[in-house]
Amino acid sequence: MTADTASDLLDAARALQPDTVELRRDLHRHPEIGNDLPRTQGAVLDAIADLGLDVRKGSSVSSVVATLDTGRPGGTMLLRGDMDALPMPEDTGLDYASTVDGAMHACGHDAHTAMLASAARVLVDRAESLTGKLVFMFQPGEEGHHGAKHMLDEGLLDGLDVTRAFAIHQSPSFPSGMVATKAGPLLASADEFVVEVVGRGGHAAMPHHANDPVPVACAMVGAFQTLVTRRVDVFDPAVVTVGSVRAGSTNNVIPESARLIGTIRAVSERTRTLVHTELERIATNIAAAHDMTVRFDIIDGFPVTVNDADAAAWVRDVARRIVGDDLVVEMPNPVMGAEDWSYVLQRVPGAMAFLGTCPPGESFHNVAPNHSNRMVIDEDAMAIGVALHAATALDELAPA
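Structure (tokenized):
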């Protein structure tokens, strides 16, 4: 891809910026959660209706798969944008803030969707410069609902020999317009654990007649952190967070049980498996030491998001032609958040990159991050996202 092509793509993306912003703000006002996103799906279908793409809607989830088949032999490029919001309030004060109580686009999926829709328009206009097939994947259920896995189970990749796959995740925690990625693990796995410690209830004045599960549960919380610092390789890290401790109903009653709920993050399957095994062992044996029983359960979440090394290097190279060397960064470490783009990258070679969206006048060190009730973005950076989507497709599917 030449410098003239990169400049052309940026010009095209900026010309579409009013449409990109309009779609993003419409989705932001009307967030939907999970895998059932009928309004969001409808907005996407309206946005790409005139592009002549082969469009399929999901049967079990509100997905959209739109394909551009050039009719010329070549590879297959997959581009993805996720569409769902988070179950949380919004306190940004924006004039296009969420109108849905308890729902907010606090992770930027509204921007991801809008950027991909505009990129589709840019690429359809340049279809004569493409070979093979180009697949636009509009995905629900990224926020813990395994939307990508549902789409794969429905046949997203059936009959497609995908040569490259690419996704963008915006982040206000990077300077606006910066593109950052790395080879190998980019984001962590994310699993949930539930520990139910069962003792014997009784009167708070006579604990010796009961068997109090509360201090035993507290001992487990401390032991879990010792596991992380003493059994897990610091260069292959894990994060164990106990997010909920629940026990009892009043001040003078020793409860029969105590419940811990938390998350496990890891950046390799080896450490992920180790922590799963060790948490159960620790919980079981601490309970046994106090003559109690324990019920332990792990709910598997997203696997580690692993960028193909060649694809990550290629994305950085393409991005340099769009934004210049100074705004392209090779990340030294993974991020401990999680992504169900991981399911796609388990099946096909590809990568994800972060796009910086720190608002003007804000420090990216202190800005409200993704998943904050006050998260806002620099919408101008979306034009770079549109151009980067288009540039990767044009580079991958260029005629030989």
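Residues 3-185+305-396 form a domain with the Aminopeptidase fold (CATH 3.40.630.10). The chain is about 35% helix and 25% strand.
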